[in-house]
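Note to self: keep these together.
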Amino acid sequence: MSASLDPLFDRPVFIVSTPRSGSTLLFETLSRAKGLYTIGGESHQLIESIPALNIRNRGYSSNRLLAEDATPDVVAELRQRFHSAMRDRDGQPLPAGATRFRMLEKTPKNSLRIPFLREAFPEARWVFLYRDPRQVLGSMMEAWRSGRFKTYVGLPGWPLPYWALLLTPGWQSLAGKPLIDIVARQWQVATDLLLDDLAALPAGAATSIRYDAFLADPQHEMQRLCEWLGLEWDRPLSGPLPYARHTVSKPDPDKWRAKAAEIEPALQRVATTVERAETMADALATAIA
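Structure:
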């Protein structure tokens, strides 16, 4: 893409986070903002059915995509697919001939795709959603065991019937490991790459939001976030937020404690990444303080 003004995608908004960080609830809430368009959900099929991006055609390496993967043909196809699937908060498509619209997108695999997406959408704005990793690891374990998040069935070289959630670089080394080690490594690899890629963005292109703060006062957090994004928030929130569509069991901030004997030692093994993520979340939050 050239450095000139994007003729279609006006500062598209990408929520980026590891899986089970609450991105669905944030997406479903933010999509109520006036003037935002979405495809209505996650973009797994939209992206991965492009032959050059299909996991099989990439040797099942991982969901990581880099700038060099954004060839002109791939970018043109990707943009066309998003453009044709856009719907506003009331389910209405883009008006015929519409230009310079605001897109909201969230797919957890995008935590591994920032360099690629930067090439495809040069005006992108990034919202880093950070959640207590104890809660995330507990939810990731629950997601694996539920059987509802089968990303790849019959993954070559993988001893289990399916792989769940995003496919991180180096996944092959996790064969035969306990589930807590699998999810901790997924979280660590995805978070480290996400933090590296966020650090490489131009100043002012990213901000952060903490999941606990969002739950505690969603109206305030939406107003702050929309102000930073240049959007209008005109639908006041009252009462608790509804459950997100991908909720597995009743949310509870202390639910992870039932698995504390597994989670706490694993958290120590990824402590450096936890510290990095906390630091990045604090640094980016100043953009909308």
